[in-house]
């Protein structure tokens, strides 16, 4: 039987949400007989609810593991859904027939919260029964294998793993941390890898030796032919963790792996998405932008806008536009990364940075074509030269245009150190490898979570 095709916890939770939301909508329509069919509105409301759950991070690892965190975010999702529904009925009365639509939306709000609660309680029960626990057979027990175990325990999309290592001394020394780990078990290299695999019946085989000597290609091929999925370390990390592990990067894998190609269709779709989303946001948020600009002017006599050179796609240097959040003499001694509680930041600037409102003028950069809406964040030329000299593959993040938001921004907090830059690069390269319009939509939705919970922003 083929293995490795089971649904993960996030996928199961999504299906539970769909089922419970559908049941909730059906119950509302049944319990309120005065409602007549309202057409498109009855379909769009639950779809918008699902998008909000995704945007607020309720399908992410931390929310799946922490029921309290998930339940804390449900009222926010319900409230945002209600606000959006009210706006829709007010501005699109020809689609959302009033007053019936108002009544349906009002009745659906508690139903939406109840459906979300029920889904997460069911998931919690399934998780406690070990439904989502996966069994891994890792070939190798050295440093690379330990890195894999650490990432699985702290970053993986799958919530729980049972890991068994198969090791041969020709693959290198056993990592002391694995040897001392009570949750890890090590098997001596079996003469018949297929028999060992069949006895263990793992969901996945991950090839992660420090040295490839002693690696049984024939045995791995036999396992694959028997229906056991076999993944190379880098490919498994990319799929399961959502980034590229730069510490153990094999450049030959990077060369021959799929991706790092933006098709013309995707490029056109991305540009259309950039223009459409930026235009809508500028129209909707123009009062907020004007109020923020006025606040900067009234609290500080300096200029409202701040322009600075940044590097975008192809190494092109452009002038980024932001609302000014620092004193006018902030860089009299040269370019310096922002720090925690940076004294150069003004009082209104602290608020603008925390809420990301200082980034709104970059929508004009996007419309002008300097940036994309989604991409690696643009850095200053001085920092790019410094980081490129210390981080291999740093220049590859410029294969696409810089973005207002990005995969690194929604997965890693703000950082101003070399280690932070290395971590963000691992996410940026994952984005460059897999970029496309659909991926951009996922990132745009999840940016809402970062706006609500801006941990690590400086």
TrEMBL record:
<dbReference type="GO" id="GO:0000271">
    <property type="term" value="P:polysaccharide biosynthetic process"/>
</dbReference>
<keyword id="KW-0472">Membrane</keyword>
<keyword id="KW-0812">Transmembrane</keyword>
<feature type="transmembrane region" description="Helical">
    <location>
        <begin position="71"/>
        <end position="96"/>
    </location>
</feature>
<dbReference type="GO" id="GO:0089702">
    <property type="term" value="F:undecaprenyl-phosphate glucose phosphotransferase activity"/>
</dbReference>
<feature type="transmembrane region" description="Helical">
    <location>
        <begin position="12"/>
        <end position="32"/>
    </location>
</feature>
<feature type="transmembrane region" description="Helical">
    <location>
        <begin position="272"/>
        <end position="296"/>
    </location>
</feature>
<dbReference type="InterPro" id="IPR003362">
    <property type="entry name" value="Bact_transf"/>
</dbReference>
<feature type="transmembrane region" description="Helical">
    <location>
        <begin position="38"/>
        <end position="59"/>
    </location>
</feature>
<protein>
    <submittedName>
        <fullName>TIGR03013 family PEP-CTERM/XrtA system glycosyltransferase</fullName>
    </submittedName>
</protein>
<dbReference type="Pfam" id="PF02397">
    <property type="entry name" value="Bac_transf"/>
</dbReference>
<keyword id="KW-1133">Transmembrane helix</keyword>
<dbReference type="GO" id="GO:0009242">
    <property type="term" value="P:colanic acid biosynthetic process"/>
</dbReference>
<keyword id="KW-0808">Transferase</keyword>
<keyword id="KW-0270">Exopolysaccharide synthesis</keyword>
<feature type="transmembrane region" description="Helical">
    <location>
        <begin position="102"/>
        <end position="126"/>
    </location>
</feature>
<dbReference type="GO" id="GO:0016020">
    <property type="term" value="C:membrane"/>
</dbReference>
<dbReference type="InterPro" id="IPR017464">
    <property type="entry name" value="Sugar_tfrase_EpsB_2"/>
</dbReference>
<feature type="domain" description="Bacterial sugar transferase">
    <location>
        <begin position="270"/>
        <end position="452"/>
    </location>
</feature>
<comment type="similarity">
    <text>Belongs to the bacterial sugar transferase family.</text>
</comment>
<dbReference type="InterPro" id="IPR017475">
    <property type="entry name" value="EPS_sugar_tfrase"/>
</dbReference>
């Amino acid at each position: 039987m083929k293995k490795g095709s089971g649904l993960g916890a996030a996928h199961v939770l999504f299906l539970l949400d769909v089922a419970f939301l559908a049941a909730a909508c059906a119950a509302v329509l049944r319990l309120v007989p005065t409602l007549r069919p309202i057409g498109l509105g009855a379909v769009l409301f639950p779809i918008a609810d699902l998008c909000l759950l995704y945007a607020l991070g309720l399908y992410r690892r931390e929310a799946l593991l922490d029921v309290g965190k998930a339940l804390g975010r449900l009222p926010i999702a319900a409230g945002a859904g209600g606000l959006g529904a009210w706006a829709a009925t007010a501005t699109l009365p020809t689609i959302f027939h009033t007053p019936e639509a108002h009544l349906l939306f009002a009745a659906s709000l508690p139903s939406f919260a109840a459906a979300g609660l029920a889904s997460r309680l069911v998931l919690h029960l399934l998780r406690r029964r070990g439904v989502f626990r996966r069994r891994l057979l890792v070939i190798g027990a050295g440093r690379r294998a330990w890195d894999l175990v650490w990432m699985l325990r702290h970053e993986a999309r799958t919530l729980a793993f049972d890991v068994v290592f198969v090791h041969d001394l020709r693959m290198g020394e056993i990592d002391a941390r694995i040897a001392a780990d009570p949750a890890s078990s090590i098997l001596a290299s079996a003469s018949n890898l297929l028999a060992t695999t069949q006895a263990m019946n793992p969901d996945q085989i991950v090839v992660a030796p420090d040295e490839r000597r002693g690696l049984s290609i024939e045995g791995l091929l036999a396992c694959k032919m028997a229906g056991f999925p076999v993944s190379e370390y880098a490919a498994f990390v990319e799929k399961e963790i959502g980034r590229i592990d730069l510490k153990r990067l094999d450049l030959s894998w990077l060369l021959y792996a799929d991706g790092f190609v933006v098709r013309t269709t995707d490029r056109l779709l991305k540009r259309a998405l950039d223009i459409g989303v930026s235009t809508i946001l500028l129209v909707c948020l123009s009062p907020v932008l004007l109020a923020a600009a006025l606040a900067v002017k009234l609290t500080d006599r300096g200029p409202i806008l701040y322009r600075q050179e940044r590097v975008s796609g192809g190494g092109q240097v452009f002038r980024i536009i932001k609302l000014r959040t620092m004193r006018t003499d902030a860089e009299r001694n040269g370019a310096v990364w922002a720090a925690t509680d940076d004294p150069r930041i003004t009082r209104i600037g602290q608020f603008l940075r925390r809420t990301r409102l200082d980034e709104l003028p970059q929508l004009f950069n996007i419309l002008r074509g300097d940036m994309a809406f989604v991409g690696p964040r643009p850095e200053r030329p001085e920092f790019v030269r410094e980081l490129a000299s210390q981080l291999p593959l740093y220049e590859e993040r410029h294969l696409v245009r810089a973005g207002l938001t990005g995969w690194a921004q929604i997965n890693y907090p703000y950082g101003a150190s070399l280690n932070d830059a290395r971590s963000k690069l691992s996410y940026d390269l994952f984005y460059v490898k897999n970029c496309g319009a659909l991926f951009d939509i996922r990132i745009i939705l999840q940016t809402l979570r970062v706006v609500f919970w801006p941990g690590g922003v400086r």
